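Spend some time on the protein that follows and explain the fold to me:
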Amino acid sequence: MLIASWNVNSVRARIENIKNYLVKYKPEILMMQEIKTEDLNFPYESFSTLNYESHVFGQKSYNGVAIISKNKLKNIKYDLIKDRLKQARIISAEVNYKNKNIQLINIYAPNGNPVDTEKYEYKKKWLDDLIKQLKSFLKRNPYLIIGGDFNIIPSSEDVYNAKSFEDDALFRLEIRKKLREMINLGFNDVYRHFNKTKEGYTFWDYMRGAWQKNNGMRIDHFLVSNSLIDKIKSININKEPRGLEKPSDHTPIEIKLA
């Protein structure tokens, strides 16, 4: 089973790129972030014609997450975090795979910049609430996969110029510690599980020729619970969609279950 995660930066603006990706790479499940549309305007039919069911937690113009799947999903949840700003940033579903009931959690974490504003405080609170929920989930189900845009650069090798990001909300030490706290609950950063030091950028800004210069960062992640990590066969950062016309500034990441 191939599970992918992709911050599409507007599902309607990227619909042709997304459909082409689905046809070519055939993931059973795609978790999308920053869909930037309300549920009502989500392109359900575009995906149903490709035999994907869609589960959407949308928001007008901003944020929004969705899971589309060729497998039957159950226990869809949209209220995992009591978000005081009521932003659509997290959706969860369960899928049965080889007699294991796997909980999928798709997240679009707040950016948090600028750091001296309420946006940064909101990011810290949102991550703290997520960590609390993960503790609860692990008590009920040892098989968890968290995918999405975490808006966290884990370490210096995950960004093209670490020095310039020292006071950025994506790389501040206290934010990186929150990712480490998540992992310490009993998860693995799948990319680093398979690639100890190799660069693995997933995002390149639209500005300043970042894509052409490979000035990227790794902020999209899969975290897999310890009891499931031996079932993960591989992880791939699929850079092809980032090089197309009208691309998202993120590119898909893919894990394959053995």
Q: What stands out?
A: The chain has one domain: 2-257. The mean pLDDT is 97. DSSP finds six helices and 14 strands in the chain. The first strand starts at residue 2 and ends at 7.
